[in-house]
Amino acid sequence: MERGATLLLDDCDPVLEECARLVRRLLEAEPDLRIVVTTRRRLGLVTEQVVPVEPLPVTLGEGIAGPAVELLAARTGPAAPELLVAVCESLEGSPLAIELAAQQLDRMSLPQLAAQVGADGPLFYSGPAPTVRHTSLYAAHAAGYALCSPTDRRVWARLSVLPGDFDPWLAGCVCTSSDVPAAEVQASLERLRLASVLESVRERGAEAPDTGAALPPRYRLPGGAREFGRTQLREAGEEAAALRRFRQACAALAAEAQVAWQGPNQQLAVRLVEDEQHHLDAALTRPPQDAEDALSALEIAVSLWFRWAACGFRREGRAHLGRLLLLSREDTALRARALWLVGWLAAQEHALDTAEELLDQAWTAAVIHADSDGLARIAHVHGVLALYREDVSTAVECLEEAARHRSTDPWFGPGPAHSGAMLAVALSSLDAERAKAAGRRAWEARHSDGDFWLYSTVLYAQALTERAHGQPAAALRACRKALAAKKLIGDPLFIAGARNILAGLRRGARDRAGEGPDGQGGRAVDEEVRWWRRGARGAPFFTRVRTGS
C-alpha cells in the first residue's frame, strides 16, 4: 500500500465491532496508514482520535453568512439573505436537513419554504441520496434509533417533550418509570450523547461564575431528533404520561424558584427561572389534559408570582393566570391565591376596576378557606389601589393591616415586611417619623439580608420621605442606592419612580431654590414622583448580564 495513504470507512455503526477489528489489523500491518471512520460511536481503540462533526454555523457575526447559509445559497442561487438565515436557523445548521429542504424548491418558493420549515419542521422532507438513511431526516434518525438499546430508545422518546436544554434531574423526572429506573437515566444520557443524539450544552464540572459552585451537565435534543422522538412516543401511546410528568416537574421547579426568591440570594431564583424558561413557558401554555393537569399548570403560574409582579412580566402573568383560571374552576385554596395574584397584576397595570372585581372574588375564596395570609395580601393590594387613587388615608389603613399580619406561609407573596415598606411609601408625604419607623420595622421583619426587592423598596420610601421633608441631599443618596438595588432584580414600576425622583432632585439642585421653571414651587417635580402615573417599561429585567450567569 502506498505510504501516507488515507482509507475512508463510511457509515460503520451497523458493523462497529467488525470495523474496529478491521482497523486494528490494518494499522498493525501498515502503521503509517491513516484511516478515517464515520460513525456515531467510538471504535474503542487506544490510538483513536475523535473529531466531532457539529452543525454548520448559520452566521459568523452580524451580517456575515456562515457555512450553513453558504450551503443553502449554493442550492438556491441569489436570494434574500434574511430568508436564507431563517431557513438555516430553523434547520439548526444540519447539512442533511439543508440539502433536503433545498430539494423542495422545485415545488415551492423560498419564502414558502421558510414559512413551512418554521412551522412544521423538516422531518419528513425526502429526496434522492446514495444511502437510504440520507433520503430523509426521519430515515437518518431511524437508523440511529435502531442502534440504541431499548432503554435508550425510551429515554430518547420521552426527552422529546422537553423544548429546551435540560439537566439530569429534569430528564429523570420525565423519563423515569417502571421500565426505566432512575439510576439508568444518567447513563442513558451519556450514551445518547456519545451516539450524537444529544448535544452537550454544559460539561460536567462547570462552575457557576458568581459562586464557583459545581453545576450539573446540561444536554439538548436537536429539533430533528426531538420531532423523531415525539413521533415514537406518540406511536407507543406514552405521550400523555410523559407530558403529565413534565408539567409536574415544572411545578416543582417553580416552587423551588419561589423559595429561592424569599431566601438569601434572589438572583438564584432569577437564574433558575432563566435556565428553565423554555420549559416553564411550555408547561404554562400547552393545553392541559384534564382538571388535575390544569391545576398543575395553575400551580406553576402562582409559584412564579415574583416573576410576574416584581420583575416586569405583569402582562404575561395576567394572560397565563386568566387562561388557567378559566380551566380550573374548582374552588380550591390554589385558585384563591391565583385570583389575588391576577388582581394584584391588574392593579399594577392600572386596570383598577378589574383589580377590584378580582380582589372581591379572592376575598370570598380566602374567607371560605380561612386563609388569613390571603386576606392580608388582599389588604396589601387594596392599599396599593388607594395610593393609585391618591387616597392616602385609606392606603395607610390597608397597609397597616397587612403589615401587622404574621404570615403562616413565608414563601408566597410580598408578606408583612413588604407591606410595611409600602406603608412607609404611603406615609412619606404625611409624617417623616412614622414613615422612617415603618421602613425600619419592615427591614427588621425581613427573611434574609439578600432580599433586594424589600431593601430597595425601603430605600425608595426613604428617598420619598427625605424629598418630601426638605432633605434633598439625603434623598439623592437613598434614591441612588434604591435604583442600584432595584436594577439587580427588576421591579420596573419602582425603577421608573426612582428615576423620576432623581430627575426632580437634579433639576431642583440646578434651580437652587428647588422650584420648577413654571415657578410653582416644585409642583411639577411632585407630579413626577407619583410613579404609579408613569407607564412602566415592559421589557424583561431578568437578564443573564445582571445575574452574572
Describe, in plain words, how this protein is organized in 3D.
The protein has 549 residues and is mainly alpha-helical. The protein is 62% helix and 4% strand. The protein contains 27 helices and six strands. The protein has a two-stranded parallel sheet. A two-stranded antiparallel sheet has the order 3-4. A two-stranded antiparallel ribbon has the order 5-6. Helix 1 links the parallel strand 1 (6-9) and strand 2 (34-37). Helix 7 crosses helix 9, helix 11 packs across helix 13 and helix 24 (472-489) runs antiparallel to helix 25. The longest helix is centred in the middle third of the chain and has 23 residues, at 239-261.
The gyration radius over C-alpha positions equals 29 Å
Summarize the biggest pleated sheet.
2 strands, parallel
Q: What percent of residues adopt helix (DSSP H or I)?
A: 55-70%
Give the strand order of the largest sheet, numbering strands 1, 2, ... along the chain.
1-2
* SSE-based structural type: mainly alpha
**N/C terminus separation:** 54 Å
Based on Cα principal axes, name the global outline.
elongated
What is the percentage of strand-forming residues?
Answer: under 5%
Round the mean pLDDT to the nearest integer and report it. Answer: 86
Stretches where pLDDT is under 50 for at least 5 consecutive residues are 516-529, 531-549
Helix segment count? 27
* Quantity of strands, as a count: 6
